[in-house]
Structures are given as structure tokens and as C-alpha cells.
Amino acid sequence: MTDATRLTAADLSRHLGSGDLSAEEVTRAHLDRIAEVDGKVHAFLHVDGDNAIQKARDIDRARAAGEELGPLAGVPIAIKDVIATKGVPTTCASKILEGWRPPYDATLMERINGAGMVMLGKTNMDEFAMGSSTEYSAYGPTNNPWDLGRIPGGSGGGSAAALAAYEAPLSIGTDTGGSIRQPGAVTGTVGAKPTYGGTSRYGLVAFSSSLDTPGPCARTVEDAALLHAVIAGHDPRDSTSIDAPVPDVVAAARQGKTGDLTGVKLGLVKEFAGEGAEPGVMAAFRDSVDALVKLGAEVVEVSCPHFLYALPAYYLIAPSECSSNLARFDGVRYGLRVGDDGNRSLEEVMSLTREAGFGPEVKRRIIIGTYALSSGYYDAYYGQAQKVRTLITRDFTSAFEKVDVLVSPTTPFVAFPFGSRTSDPYQMYLADLYTIPTNLYGGPAISVPCGLSEGLPVGFQIMAPTLADDRMYRVGAALESALGTLTPPELELS
Ligand code: GLN
């Protein structure tokens, strides 16, 4: 019998359409798998089983009644816990939001529900999406299905691990500095960051508003494109949403699957040649570039001199925006309230709530950001970082005059053991060395599995110009057709 948890979303769509699997069967198979393995993996913070079964039955009924359904109707999905889901706990993996049930759905949830997809539950993450390992979740880390003693990446470690552990065929992540792509890379799955403004931020709990971008996570490039097509497109409720047609990413992925890249120019970023990367990661990357050349692609070396300043600029801009965005967690409006015994001032209650409710990394970011924005320092730190951001954007613009896409490893190192980078924040921040430039520019980028180093997955990053999301899907699918997908070892459940 077909094990529905091992199928891609594209396969599930075909089985559901032909009637040899029902949405209820598919949903139950995934809920059973979650019950079986999530005690080990801890990808989920909340499993919404009853609602999922209900929704699946509704879809089966609609299909039986001959209703016109979208391609992903009846396909299950897991949602990063930073996305507002009506009536369903949304914690951002923080104690400060424990017990909060949003009174509304994020725009992308409306689209996912409207497409007939079945939400299985909410996935674990670093608190408020700040981190690269999921170790900063207030509810305990997620374990990498490839090696349970290692990190699944972050901040969206739960969304990626759920895919690698076959708990869900698709999931949603958010990428501010790499939180979709880096977890994808270290779990051997696909993660795509759309063009900034291409997917709505309405109902995404804000971390750094000028960078935050929701996007699809999947086990294949085509599956990521199918989900991208559901969630992308203009939303008047998000003032930075782009009012332009969404490129046909599904057609691009299917074109890429044919394995022909004749005439496509790949740019190798000179400044990233070996910069900080493990030798095994660089080896897998170079082999993958060779594989793309065999498919007809041409390689051009390009210089992006300011990319090396992206990390420090990001670690001023993102904390600055976070210090402002997280001011709303004051013990009055949402979730936790500490010390409200009638004898304390409002200010004392706010301060006690924030002291108890935020974890160490979130506090570090708020402090850095508050400092960088304070009068007298604003120009020297935040203002300077914004100028660097402009220079990075110019690097991208001039690179894309010469090449169609830029390529690099997604992350300098494979999944690391728990605890090995938490004592030095800078070591953790380095995980995003290659992903952050794209966020500062606003373009799309995808991570596709490209082999193993020391038995652990390596990710290949493809960066494209803004609004040319289709290009990265085409090249990504071509790479996947050449290299195949990665299959993790079976989980030991004893
Ligand atoms: N790891 C980066 C950070 O800690 C990126 C996080 C993200 O993309 N949400 O800020």
C-alpha cells in the first residue's frame, strides 16, 4: 500500500485527484506519523488534529460533489508558529505569547485554507525567528532527523525537520536573514525565499519588517513552486506588498526538470570563494556547479564587493527593527502578564513581563537595536548600515546585468551539534553569511540539496533578480534533476 507520508505534494495531488487516496486518509497518515516520531524530532509546538480531520473531510465531500478544487486541495501542510492562525495557538516559540490564540488568520493562511490545504499544526522555531538553530525556542529545540544530536537550522527548524521526518509534505517558513533557506540546507530539503513583497506579511508576527518574507518549504523544487503559487500575490492589507503579476513559478520548475539550461548564465560570487566555508561544503558546491555546466549553463565570475559587509549591516538593521516591533509585547495587549497585583505601576508590570517573557537572544537583539537607534548613535550605526544596504543592492543590480542568477553554498557549514554555537553569538550569526545579502537586496533565493559532507546535507543557493522568482525555480529544478533528492536515514524510534 502507498505510504502517503513518503509522497511529494505533486504526487499526493495526483492521487487525490484520481480518487485513489482521500484527503482524510492522507491527513490521518501524517497525523499518525507525527504521533510516532515527533517525540524524537519535536518539529511541532501544536498539532491541530481534530480540525485537520474535519477540514480533510470537507475537502473529500467537496470533491465528491464535483466542486472545482485547486491542485493542492487535500494536501497537508505545517505552519511556522510565527504566522497568525485564527483560534489556534500562535506563540512565536516565546513564553510572552503563551496561550495566545489570534482572532484572525494571516493572509497566507486564508490563501492556504482557500486552496483546500489541510493545516496539521504549528512548527517550532527560534523565539520570534531570531536564531539559526531552533535552540532559542522557549519550548525546547527541534532535532535534525539526519542526526538527532544536531540542530535542524533556524529559525524555521521545525518547518524543515517536519519535512525531513515525513511528518508533512509541505510547510511554511519565514526568511528575514536565511530562516527558510538555512534550515532547508541542513535538513536536505528545499526552502525558497520569494521576492520581498511578493508574499504578504499581514498576520506574520513582525521581526524586521523591511526584511521578513514568508515562503514555501518542501522536499522537491516543484512542490515548493506549487505552494509558492498558492501564497504569492498582491495583498492590499500589507503596505509593502507588490502589485504585480506573480511569475509562473510552477511552469519554470517543470521546465527546469527537463534538465536543459542552455544559455543560462550562473554568476559565481568572487568574494564568497571559500570564505568561511567548510571544505566538504565547498566540494559539494563545486561539484554541483559542474553538474549545472553539463546541463548547458555557463559560469561567469562576478564581484560583489559589499557582500562581506552584509552580516554586520544586517545585525544592526534587523535588531533595530526588532526593538521597535517587539515593543508591542507589553503585558497589556497579548499573552503573558507578570506582577499585576494592584500595587505595581504599569511600567513595573511591563518591565517584569518583558523580563520573564523574553529569552536571552531576543533580549540581546532588543538591547542592540535600542542602542543603534538612540539619538547620537543613529547615524553612526543604523544610518550607516542602511547605506551599506544600498551598496549591496547595487552589487546585485550590476551582477544581474552580466548573469541570470548568482549561486553559492546556502550556509558555510553542515548541521552542527547542539550547544556548539550558543556561547558565542557571532558563531551563530555566521550561519547566515551567504543568505543575508539577498534579504538586504529584496530578491528571491532558493536552497536546493546538493549532496552530503560528512554524511550530512549541503545546500546550494540560487539567487535571482527581484520579481524573477521563476528563474531560481528553473535552475533549482534542473539541479535536482541532475543530483536527485536526499533521503535521510530512517529514524530510530526505540
Ligand atoms: N539567523 C538569522 C537571525 O538570527 C535569520 C533569522 C530569520 O531569517 N528569521 O536573525
Automatic annotation (TrEMBL):
Keyword Transcription: no
Protein EC: 6.3.5.7
UniProt cross-references to InterPro entries, sorted A to Z: Amidase (IPR000120), Amidase_CS (IPR020556), Amidase_dom (IPR023631), AS_sf (IPR036928), GatA (IPR004412)
Residue ranges occupied by any Amidase domain in the UniProt entry: 25-471
ATP-binding listed as a keyword: yes
Gene3D superfamilies hit by this protein: Amidase signature (AS) domain (3.90.1300.10)
Role description: Allows the formation of correctly charged Gln-tRNA(Gln) through the transamidation of misacylated Glu-tRNA(Gln) in organisms which lack glutaminyl-tRNA synthetase. The reaction takes place in the presence of glutamine and ATP through an activated gamma-phospho-Glu-tRNA(Gln).
Protein name: Glutamyl-tRNA(Gln) amidotransferase subunit A
Organism: Luedemannella helvata
